[in-house]
Design goal:
Elements (H helix, E strand, L loop, with lengths): L1 H16 L11 H12 L4 H11 L9 H13 L2 H12 L6 E3 H11 L9 H16 L6 E3 H10 L16
Antiparallel strand pairs: 1-2
Helix pairs in contact: 1-4, 3-5, 5-8, 6-7
Keywords: Calcium, Metal-binding, Repeat
GO molecular function: calcium ion binding
InterPro entries: EF-hand-dom_pair, EF_Hand_1_Ca_BS, EF_hand_dom, Recoverin
């Protein structure tokens, strides 16, 4: 109860600090992103946008106090099952229930550091996508279903954030 009350107080403080019109109903994308950046050091624009969309359950482009508390509950203290579902939603860019080769490529492209090599950096990312599919695509259909992702993460927990950091680190 105390933690929930603290989250609600933090939410009210963030809403009060933001000067946007939508602040009356909750946190807009910019305030939310700034908070994740300053509190958890999350910087990847694509991942921040996907985390926002995952928190924003009713798709009204605003995080309500209920969405805030429920989202942070999974984000900070979620069970493995809840975090697997959350990460899958973050990575399923088009919401079709699969993480496609293209979606993996897009996320890895934005989350990996560019290496100053002569070869095409996209080739290395394509290789990583191939490796991920080989390791995680149990039904061999060329994309990851939730079942594939769930099984892969349960077999190897490090794969939970295989396509970019979307959870806070331990500290």
């Amino acid at each position: 109860k105390g933690e929930v009350e603290c989250l609600i107080k933090l939410f009210d403080t963030l809403v009060a600090e933001s000067s946007t019109r939508s602040a009356a109903v909750g946190l807009d994308r910019n305030v939310f992103r700034d908070t994740l950046y300053s509190t958890f050091g999350m910087m990847d624009d694509m991942i921040l946008d996907r985390v926002f969309r995952t928190f924003d359950r009713d798709n009204d482009s605003c995080i309500s106090v209920v969405e805030w508390v429920e989202g942070l509950s999974v984000f900070l203290r979620g069970t493995l099952e809840e975090r697997i579902k959350y990460c899958f939603e973050v990575y399923d860019l088009n919401g079709d229930g699969y993480i496609s080769r293209e979606e993996m490529f897009q996320m890895l492209k934005t989350s990996l550091l560019k290496q100053p090599l002569e070869e095409d950096p996209d080739e290395g990312i394509k290789d990583l996508v191939d490796i991920a599919l080989k390791k995680m695509d149990y039904d061999h259909d060329g994309k990851l279903s939730f079942t594939d992702f769930d099984k892969a993460v349960r077999d190897e927990n490090l794969l939970l954030e295989a396509f970019g950091p979307c959870l806070p680190d331990i500290k």
